[in-house]
Amino acid sequence: MFYIHCPYCGELREEEEFHPKGQAHIARPADPTACTDEEWGDYLFFRDNPRGIHHELWVHAVGCRKFFNITRHTVSYEILETFKMGEQPSFTTEHPQGGSAESATRQAQDALQAGVHA
Ligand SMILES: [Zn+2]
């Protein structure tokens, strides 16, 4: 079992309270009737499958029931950060070590691990 930091509840909760909902930051076309079949098919069915940094949409299904984003490393499975809808990730493929400000999630997870191993 592992823990996920819910950015709305502001605390680490058991993974069983959460459900993944797929790739994050997929914008619905502004005018679907103007899309070609290929563009609409890409929007509906095709998702990135990167090796490394990946942004995912999750929901705190058994908690506050809010959607939020997780930045996860697909090789190590490490959750690098969680952030609210509308916020920008500090970990990206261009900045794999994160932004200048360390996220609250990272600090909370480090604190938890320190407590577990103490
Ligand atoms: Zn929550």
From TrEMBL:
<feature type="region of interest" description="Disordered">
    <location>
        <begin position="88"/>
        <end position="118"/>
    </location>
</feature>
<protein>
    <submittedName>
        <fullName>Sarcosine oxidase, delta subunit family</fullName>
    </submittedName>
</protein>
<dbReference type="InterPro" id="IPR006279">
    <property type="entry name" value="SoxD"/>
</dbReference>
<feature type="compositionally biased region" description="Polar residues">
    <location>
        <begin position="89"/>
        <end position="110"/>
    </location>
</feature>
<dbReference type="GO" id="GO:0008115">
    <property type="term" value="F:sarcosine oxidase activity"/>
</dbReference>
<dbReference type="InterPro" id="IPR038561">
    <property type="entry name" value="SoxD_sf"/>
</dbReference>
<dbReference type="GO" id="GO:0046653">
    <property type="term" value="P:tetrahydrofolate metabolic process"/>
</dbReference>
<dbReference type="Pfam" id="PF04267">
    <property type="entry name" value="SoxD"/>
</dbReference>
